[in-house]
Amino acid sequence: MKYISRISAILLLIVMAFSANAQFDIISAKDAKNLVKDDKVIFVSTRKAEDYAKVHINNAINLEIKSLYQDGPVEGLLMNAADMAKVLGENGIDPAKTIIIYDNGKYVYAGHLYFALKYLGYPNVKILDGHMSGWRSVRGPVTRSPFTKSALTVTPKVNSSIMVDYNYTKGKVNNAGTIIVDVQSPTEFAEGHIPGAINMEYKLFINEESTTLKSKEEIEKVLADHKIAKNKEVILYCASSARAGTVYLAMKGLGYNNLKIYEGGWNQWKTK
Known about the structure:
By secondary structure, this protein is an alpha/beta fold. The protein is 36% helix and 17% strand. The strands form four sheets. It has a five-stranded parallel β-sheet. A five-stranded parallel β-sheet has the order 8-14-13-9-10.
């Protein structure tokens, strides 16, 4: 009986440890390495085409994030849902698969694609923690040969509650129930920001040397230091809101459920 209890306790600790690591939509390079040949998984590089051509993860397709951006005066603004779904379908990015995204290690392009996919209703999306440096550290297989997937039709299941526009955000300025958060650098923030916004740079959530997401405890401290309450609506933005995607991932993992991104960001706001 004691033996069974001991085994049960060990199993419980394993489950608890797994849960603690799994609360964020990230995956370690060690775990991702085991999925390279899994046909239920799609690896997506969001790096520039020339960087992808030099070296990339085996079986990873390349989707430059700018291929999802609108043409127009507002830099970095995502297309509408139908147009994004068309691009994703042409690149074989299937909502029925687990999508593992990586970028150049800054968590910017990967964060923006992560948010775009969640907005479109993709249920299983992860960011490769450590990106290429993490992949190399576990000797993950790499190649220079391009990889593509067959095109398919993607029907978006839009989660409109997580993306807001200029008019919505303007209506929330100085609203006691809403915290507007600018995740740009302090220098950028000082040069101009939405009235009433607080500054919480996205880099506070990342270990820049290892290009990994900070721990649960470290992220909780960042949010506590900036007085970001879970019972408030939180609207995130940056210049194009690309950097906001990583902060969205981190906060969502900690149970911030009334969380939105103002996709137009400062690039759009300053033109109004």
